[in-house]
UniProtKB/TrEMBL annotation:
<feature type="region of interest" description="Disordered">
    <location>
        <begin position="301"/>
        <end position="328"/>
    </location>
</feature>
<dbReference type="InterPro" id="IPR020046">
    <property type="entry name" value="5-3_exonucl_a-hlix_arch_N"/>
</dbReference>
<keyword id="KW-0234">DNA repair</keyword>
<keyword id="KW-0238">DNA-binding</keyword>
<dbReference type="InterPro" id="IPR012337">
    <property type="entry name" value="RNaseH-like_sf"/>
</dbReference>
<keyword id="KW-0548">Nucleotidyltransferase</keyword>
<dbReference type="InterPro" id="IPR019760">
    <property type="entry name" value="DNA-dir_DNA_pol_A_CS"/>
</dbReference>
<dbReference type="InterPro" id="IPR008918">
    <property type="entry name" value="HhH2"/>
</dbReference>
<dbReference type="InterPro" id="IPR002298">
    <property type="entry name" value="DNA_polymerase_A"/>
</dbReference>
<keyword id="KW-0808">Transferase</keyword>
<comment type="similarity">
    <text>Belongs to the DNA polymerase type-A family.</text>
</comment>
<keyword id="KW-0239">DNA-directed DNA polymerase</keyword>
<feature type="domain" description="3'-5' exonuclease">
    <location>
        <begin position="332"/>
        <end position="526"/>
    </location>
</feature>
<dbReference type="Pfam" id="PF01367">
    <property type="entry name" value="5_3_exonuc"/>
</dbReference>
<dbReference type="InterPro" id="IPR018320">
    <property type="entry name" value="DNA_polymerase_1"/>
</dbReference>
<dbReference type="Pfam" id="PF01612">
    <property type="entry name" value="DNA_pol_A_exo1"/>
</dbReference>
<keyword id="KW-0540">Nuclease</keyword>
Length: 943
């Protein structure tokens, strides 16, 4: 059929179909191999609907589905930042793109894409050709960029809302007719595609200007006539960018599309290839519907009973009702031989997923012995494989293994292919622990999901994310408590001493609970709009941290021992001074005795007693007394006690305790990072905590001297420079701060100059110090009282500093007010990367409200900084691959590496590039990220 008058071309925006399908449905996987197919299922249903329903309009004579080509286009040559803000594709969506192309061809519909051009350009070209040939065109899409094509025989149809978009709808949206849409878009820009436009001019203002002046070029040529100063300046100063924007938003209707209109004629689906594709995807319902329409018998498919979220069922009913399977410990199986294990492995391969958990003798993954493994494939059905249980139930019963257990090596050899199979999803709760246990036995788990991190992505700030709490909250089930098996205190036993029958109930239940949490949480990630956070910031970090923790950092026990002795001597000297000032000896470490000395013997006013009857002598109380030099001896005493406490903490927490954390097998300290420990996304370090080593005092910095590089190696530190202030400058849109960061100016000196009117060349260290305290204090919502304590100045003076700060930088106050208002309205705040931090106390009354307000203000800033270094860490293994270097530690804004002497500069170059580019392409910051580097034989020298 030759295309001409009377023909009707339907052009389907394929990329829009994919994304709508992806976000409309829960995560769905193919039963046979775990392949993500949710978007494909939705796409096929939408396409079949277009092929079989006219929706009240004349059916098409010609049809094509048009896709974006997955590479750069000519627009990237026009403007290198085009679409730089686009977030990375979710991990489970990426493999579905080629499948939608296969689906289009399987339905016997023309499938079009072209390198160097976007789908919109192909649609514009085919629409032009069709109307020139006398035909009509319907574009199946709601994309605003395509609205410039409406008119002269072209309409759009929004399939999701079942409505036609013609000239009137375009005018309603843009305020101008279709032929002027490009002019409005050129002025307003587009933050999604990073089209610059004119700063401060939105759609409404742009429409007013275009309607007044007629077209874009006339407007730009007469820009000096505009009365409003900001609009006038925006147009005059950004004229070139506006013209660039016009080239970016104008669709190319002359693209070299090779397909003829005649080749797009509607064709009936061919039964054999279509049935083959639908069967391959395991789309039962759609296969049956299509077979009925084609009047053929549907192909027979394998049973899908082990797939609780089968793609086709969910595509038809995204939230199917289900009856929860009751928990029954008696149904759990104890796997004692290879035949039983093989049956479970077969079930895992059939289901395409398995919840897995390990039982060990310790929470220290580097020293823990593997005692058993639990598995679950279907809710209510789980097993436990005992591998290392000892005879008897206590420490004195002997070390012989209990009967009826598989040899550890045999069980791991059987499970290794499954646990490493890319087509089988492994599901865990706090998977990093199990990942390390298996890694120590030569097994690298992949791919995996982590229910703890799913909960964290959705519920940060609402509650903790431990399995027992999640089970009670979301499953209504209270799991067996570990204390009921191990006991507590000095009489506690390790899990290898737990009788196997008791262990089966506890361990198998863990796997069962984990599987059920996964089924509950996985679809909710999309509904909570945090899939990208989970897929790009949480889950990929697990193996990175696990490798770092297993590598550990070398610590010299002799250096620690010498420091402990030196600290002990310093404490003794401070005690002598304290006793002399007090006029009598007392136990400096006793808050009760210290309070009696200060408030009773020395007569310091304002002492407050707690419930025990003892005076409060916390750090804040002592800091206030020490700052009040008018008190004389009591102020000196408080200052000395603060010094004594600091040295005492360094000795007990670090120089003494760290010696006990050195692994005897590796000679290294292996900290453990908690991914879900802080609401903002910051990592927490435990056992031991290496993130709280003080670096502002000489004694604290000395502790880092004990962290050393191995023979022939160096430690290299890269640290983000003032990253939170840079993010504040960006999110609060403070021109002076942004420009200072771009120019590399000392930000604290610049702030002091702006606030206090002191020229930069006359800046004193004291004035700069005060500005620095305010800069960082503002991020944390510091009060006049808090700043007064930090600077040891009168409260009124401190409050005046803060008031002056907000006068000089009003955008910061606006950001704070805007953020708090958002939190009160939504119940959460968000980082630049989509992380949600819930603020349940934001509408509370009293002191709690103030804390919640400060937390809400700080969370998007601290959270964005945490997201950026997470992104850097996730990319780092690939960035330094091939270099003789290992990433060892993360301390908030700092990464520490161990590298061979000869590769230091190569490591610094690769790591710095990764860190400084970590925000892209998800977010384009208005300020540069800077990573400072250092190197040395020990950590103190490197940082």
């Amino acid at each position: 059929m030759t295309f001409g008058k009377g023909c009707h071309l339907h052009l389907i925006d394929g990329s829009a179909f994919i994304f709508r399908a992806y976000h409309a449905l829960p995560p769905l996987t193919r039963k046979s191999d775990g392949l993500p197919i949710g978007a494909v299922a939705g796409f096929c249903n939408m396409l079949w609907g277009q092929l079989t329903q006219n929706r009240g309009r004349t059916g098409p004579t010609h049809i094509a589905v048009v896709f974006d080509y997955s590479s750069k286009t000519f627009r990237d040559d026009i403007y290198d930042k085009y679409k730089a803000n686009r977030p990375e594709l979710p991990e489970d969506l990426r493999p579905q793109f080629p499948l939608t192309r296969e689906a289009t061809r399987a339905f016997n519909v023309a499938c079009l894409e072209m390198e160097g051009y976007e789908a919109d350009d192909i649609i514009a070209t085919l629409a032009r050709r069709a109307t020139e040939a006398g035909g009509e065109v319907t574009i199946i899409s709601s994309d605003k960029d395509l609205m410039q094509l409406v008119g002269n025989g072209v309409v759009m149809f929004d399939a999701m809302k079942n409505r036609t978009i013609d000239r009137d709808e375009v005018i309603e949206k843009f305020g101008v007719p279709p032929e002027r849409v490009v002019d409005v878009q050129s002025l307003a820009g587009d933050s999604v595609d990073n089209v610059p436009g004119a700063p401060g001019i939105g759609i409404k203002t742009a429409a007013l200007l275009i309607n007044e002046y007629g077209d874009l070029e006339t407007l730009l040529s007469r820009a000096e006539e505009i009365k409003q100063p900001k609009r006038r300046a925006a147009l005059i100063e950004n004229a070139d960018l506006i013209r660039v924007s016009k080239r970016l938003v104008t669709l190319d209707a002359q693209a070299p599309v090779t397909e003829s209109l005649d080749a797009l004629e509607v064709r009936d689906p061919e039964a054999e290839p279509l049935m083959a594709f639908l069967s391959q995807m395991e789309f039962r319902t759609l296969t049956r519907r299509v077979a009925e329409a084609l009047k053929i018998e549907p192909p027979v498919m394998a049973d899908n009973s082990l797939t609780p979220d089968h793609a086709e069922k969910a595509a038809d009913d995204p939230a199917p009702a289900s009856t929860p399977v009751p928990f029954s410990h008696g149904d759990y199986e104890c796997v004692r031989d290879r035949a039983a294990l093989d049956r479970w492995i077969a079930a895992i391969r059939e289901a395409g997923h398995v919840a897995v958990d390990t039982e060990t003798t310790s929470l220290d993954e580097m020293r823990a012995a593997l005692v058993g493994i639990s598995l679950s494939v279907v809710p209510g059905q789980a097993c436990y494989i005992p591998l290392g249980h000892r005879q008897g139930g206590d420490l004195f019963a002997g070390d012989a293994l209990s009967d009826g257990q598989m040899p550890l090596d045999e069980a791991l050899a059987a499970l290794k292919p499954v646990l490493e199979d890319a087509s089988i999803l492994k599901i865990g709760q706090n998977m990093k622990y199990d990942w390390k246990i298996f890694a120590r036995h030569g097994i690298r788990i992949a791919p995996f999901d982590d229910t703890m991190l799913m909960s964290y992505a959705m519920h940060a700030g609402l509650h903790n994310h431990g399995m027992d709490g999640l089970s009670e909250r979301y499953l209504g089930h209270k799991p067996i408590e570990i204390k009921s098996l191990l006991g507590s205190g000095k009489s506690a036993i390790t899990f290898d001493r737990v009788p196997v029958d008791d262990a089966v109930k506890y361990a198998a239940e863990d796997a069962d609970v984990t599987l059920r949490l996964w089924q509950a949480f996985k679809p909710d990630l999309h509904r909570a709009a945090v899939t990208t956070v989970y897929e790009t910031l949480e889950r990929p970090l697990v193996p990175v941290l696990a490798e770092m923790e297993m590598a550990g950092i070398r610590v010299d026990p002799n250096v620690l021992s010498r420091m402990s002795n030196a600290f002990a001597q310093k404490m003794a000297g401070l005690e002598a001074e304290i006793h002399e000032i007090a006029g009598q000896p007392f136990n400096v470490g006793s808050p009760k005795q210290l309070g009696e000395i200060l408030f009773d013997a020395m007569g310091v006013p304002g002492g407050e007693k707690g419930k025990t009857g003892a005076y409060s002598t916390g750090a804040d109380v002592l800091e206030d007394i020490a700052a009040n030099t008018d008190l004389g001896r009591p102020a000196d005493l408080a200052a000395r006690v603060l010094d004594w406490r600091q040295v005492s903490k360094l000795k007990s927490t670090y120089t003494d305790a760290l010696q006990g954390h050195i692994n005897p097998d590796t000679g290294r300290v292996h900290t453990s990072y908690s991914i879900a420990g802080a609401n903002t996304g910051r990592l927490a370090s435990t056992d031991p905590n290496l993130q709280n080593i003080p670096v502002r005092t000489e004694e604290g910095r000395r502790i880092r001297e004990a962290f050393v590089a191995g023979p022939g190696m160096r430690l290299v530190s890269l640290d983000y420079s003032q990253i939170e202030l840079r993010i504040l400058a960006h999110v609060a849109d403070i021109p002076a701060l942004k420009q200072a960061f771009r120019d590399g100016i000392d930000i604290h000196a610049m702030t002091a100059s702006q606030m206090f009117g002191v020229p930069l060349d006359e800046m004193t260290p004291e004035v700069r110090r005060r500005a620095k305290a305010i800069n960082f204090g503002v991020i944390y919502g510091i009060s006049g009282f808090g700043l007064a304590r930090n600077l040891r100045i009168p409260r009124a003076e401190a409050q005046a500093f803060i008031d002056t700060y907000f006068e000089r930088f009003p955008g910061i106050r606006e950001y704070m007010d805007r953020t708090v208002a958002f939190a009160k309205d939504k119940g959460f705040v968000q980082t630049l990367f989509g992380r949600k931090i819930h603020t349940p106390e934001i509408n509370a009354k009293g002191p709690t409200a103030g804390f919640a307000r400060r937390a809400a203000i700080n969370a998007p800033i601290q959270g964005a900084a945490a997201d950026i270094i997470r992104r850097a860490m996730i990319r780092m293994p690939d960035a330094i691959r091939g270099l003789p270097a290992t990433m060892l530690l993360q301390v908030h804004d700092e990464l520490l590496f161990e590298v061979e002497d000869g590769a230091v500069e190569d490591l610094i170059t690769a790591a710095r590039k990764t860190m400084e580019g970590a925000a892209h392409p998800a977010v384009h910051l208005d300020v540069p990220l800077i990573a400072d580097s250092g190197q040395g034989a020990n950590w103190a020298e490197a940082h």
